[in-house]
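Example complex used in Figure S2.
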Amino acid sequence: MPDSPIDPFRAFMDYRWDGVSLLPYKEDGAAPFKSVTRQVLFHDPDLKCELRYFEVAPGGHSTLERHEHVHGVMILRGAAEVLVGTEVRAVKTFDLVHIPPLTWHQFRTTGREPMGFLCMVNAERDRPQLPSEADLAEMRSHPAVAVFLAAK
Amino acid sequence: MPDSPIDPFRAFMDYRWDGVSLLPYKEDGAAPFKSVTRQVLFHDPDLKCELRYFEVAPGGHSTLERHEHVHGVMILRGAAEVLVGTEVRAVKTFDLVHIPPLTWHQFRTTGREPMGFLCMVNAERDRPQLPSEADLAEMRSHPAVAVFLAAK
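Predicted assembly (304 residues):
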């Protein structure tokens, strides 16, 4: 996280931004995911949310998780299949995804391009929860979700 | 502002989003601006910020103003000249702009395309202030700012 004042102008080039570090998706190795990077675009004591950019390589996916806090997501590049609760939907550049509280969700790239998305989130938030075997069984009782979760 | 639950999936088409209203830039007619529209992409009691999309037609500009609250901006389409404090900078798609507290700022389109930007802002925030004649004189003492403010 940047401790210095934020530069008013930070130029974009090739899905990187001036002065913004390319970070691992998760700090620890506990949660399963594949081929995801993270960049924190806005993190400011005067803003009560953060804006992050996540990028998932072709064939990659974010962690299947849920939490009390909400996500406001905009796809910035590429295409994905997204699970929100019991719904699976194909999304593309500039589509919006809203993840309500305590709702299982996961992003998977589709196609040969990386898939990148902006994610707005409260700066103060709870830690994600991972599904138990019972949670997974419940999810798999929904046919579209079972197909989504079986994808490699 | 939407009072109903937010649809988890809202598709993008031609710089509009499913279920998102096209709004006037400002509710009142008091502040000067030209050819700007507003769409609220995320407004949710569980999120402490809002994400808005503003679009400025060719030749248009936002209000010259300042306020205590901070803006986290990403250009989404087109090109602009942006004033932040005493700095004027050309920006283009996906560049980031951070507006610190109580800092005069204005966006002007450049080129023949509309210019659109995302703006993240605290849900609870103060009202913008407009410059006095003395404020404008001080701003114009900076040559680049004087040129920017003289543009039509």
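Chain B has a mean pLDDT of 93. Chain B touches chain A through 42 residues (CB under 8 Å).
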